[in-house]
Each structure stands twice: as structure tokens, then as C-alpha cells.
């Protein structure tokens, strides 16, 4: 049973397409195909029912933290209730993400995002101390070729890793924390919890997803603006230096006369002209400083617009709405794994060990459909055993159990029994 570091657990085909691909292989005759499709249909129904319960549990535990809730409650949540709801929510959300074949983003990934060059040419600052807890998971990774200009002249083409899906849960600290830091005009409620789902996020830009992100200038931006400001400032100063010197001379003459004689002599026309020239020079310098400040603000606004535009088009869901996306994805992945493992055990007929079944499924994806998947064989067999869709018929020479699928008729009977006995109200 091979293990891979460069393959994902995610199966990049729809459940319906997996079933169609299996049927098109010619393993079944017409009658068997109809039975196989019925097995798949009942499996879908069972997993849909099971994940509906998990969805309700997530929503129930999220309620006290949900900033978007529009219903009232008669329940008074104690601090212990709040802690219990938070722990249950985080535990169950992580479990659902795992079922959906998401992977957790590590501290190394966050460090990579902070240090690496941003795809959107902006630099961001995140204060992680604002959070009581945080979860970030990804699923699906691809690369995108992007051309950068280095030092404004040389063009470089680089491969940027892109996360196809990123799920995030953030719990903020309480109001006392933000009051102590004198943080005002918060765009979120202290102690609330936000949940987000995004698509196509560059690995180097994960930090842009955090709700307290602040834009900061890159070194080259500061050098560009600083160089422009210094160069322009020198030019303005040279143009206005004569007026400033003339005004300074007049002021010094007036101050000296006042100190020595106690009186300020009347100004001659030349001195008045010097004062006017000086005031004009000061106005020119002030205008230049104001222009540079406005340039800085406009550049920051452009940065924020870039950030806002990208998040707007990459957002897939918010808060409780994310549960529906994740639950649906988890339901799909669990069902695909069960269908694939049952189909390939059924196709072989003589039985396969865990490692052999894993290799057969991964080879089918790679050789037939040009997709490399790290199939979750242990989880798939666990599901089949729980549903009684396979049995152990012996061991190989290495002592590994050999699994065999039950017949289509037995599978239908077993799944129908499970479905019929979800509710038993007869006394």
C-alpha cells in the first residue's frame, strides 16, 4: 500500500461520474448494472441522512457565536455552555473537513504566505493575537504561471501554488482585550466566530483572508515613493530657495531691529517683494508635501481595492452557509470512497487485501483517467465493514486480511434494512 507526499486524498470527479465510469467498464450485464445503480442510490440516501444530522449539530453549536443569526432564543447560555458549544463546534467542524478530504494549513504554510511575494503585489499584516482560536484547511492544489516585473524592467515567469478551496474558522477574543488595546471601529463583534470558504487562493496570499488584515507598503513601494518625494522635494526647494532666503533675510532684519531698537522699521518695496516670494515658496513646498501625502493615500486605496476585488470574487460562503458547502462535499467524498471500494472488490471477485485494493484503485485513476489520488483505503474499508458490504475470507502469505464484496443482492438487502430501521416507532 503506497503512501504519497505529493498526492491528495480528494477525488476530483463527481459522485455521479464515478458511478457512470464504473458502469461503462463492462463489468456488469444489464440486470447487474441496474442492481449496482440501486446500491449506489441507497448509499447516497444513507450518507445524505447521516450528514444531515451532522449539519444540524454544527448549526446548533454555532448558534451562540453566529453574528448573522436572525432568530430569538429563550435559552441563557452560561460560560460553561459557551465553552462546550465552542469545543463541540471545532471538533465536529474539523471532522467534517477531514471527511471532505481537506488538509489543515500548517504554521509553516502561514510563514510561507507572510514571507513570499504576493501574487497581487500587496503586503499584509495580521495580528494573530486578536484570535482565541483559528482553523484553516485547504483542498485541491494547482499551479499558475505568473509573470512578474523585477526592478520594473526584467520579467520573470514563476509557478504560483494555488489552493482551490480554503475553509477558515476564526474566534475573536473578548471585548476587554480590544478595549485594552484601544481598538475602536471594529468590523466584527468581540467573542463572535466567523466561518469562511474561499476558492483559488494563492498559497502566498493566505494572510489576505484574515478579518483583521492591514495593508502595508512593500519595500519597493516605499523606495519608489520615497525616491519620487526626495527628487521632487529637491527640485521644488531649488526653485523656491531664493524666495525662502529673501524672506529669511527680511525676518532676521526685522527681529534684529526689534531687539536692538525696540521698534520694527517699515519695509521697503524690495523687502516686501522678498516676503511675498518667501510666502509663495512656503506655499509651493506645502503643496508638494500635500501632494505626496495624497499619493500615499491613493496608493493605499488602490491596494485595498485590489484586496477587496479579489476577495469578492473568491468568496464561496460565509458563517452557517459554509456548513452546507462542506457537508455536501463530505457527503460526496464519503460516498465516492464507499462506491469505489465496493465496486473494485466486486469486480475482482476473488478478494483483495487492503494494500492490493488501494493499489488497484489508485492505478485505475492514474492509468485510465490521468489523475493521481492518494486513496483513503482504510476509511473506505471501514465504511464497507460498518455497512456489512464486505467480509474477510482469509489471509494472504503475509498475514493480511483478504476482503471480498458481498453480492449485489445481499448489498441491496443489507442497505434496505439499514434504511428501513432508521426510525422504529412501532411498539
TrEMBL record:
It comes from Desulfonema magnum. Pfam families: DUF3754 (PF12576). The chain crosses the membrane at residues 223-252, 272-290. This is DUF3754. It comes from the Bacteria. Keywords: Membrane, Transmembrane, Transmembrane helix. InterPro entries: DUF3754 (IPR022227). PANTHER family: AMINOPEPTIDASE (DUF3754) (PTHR33645).
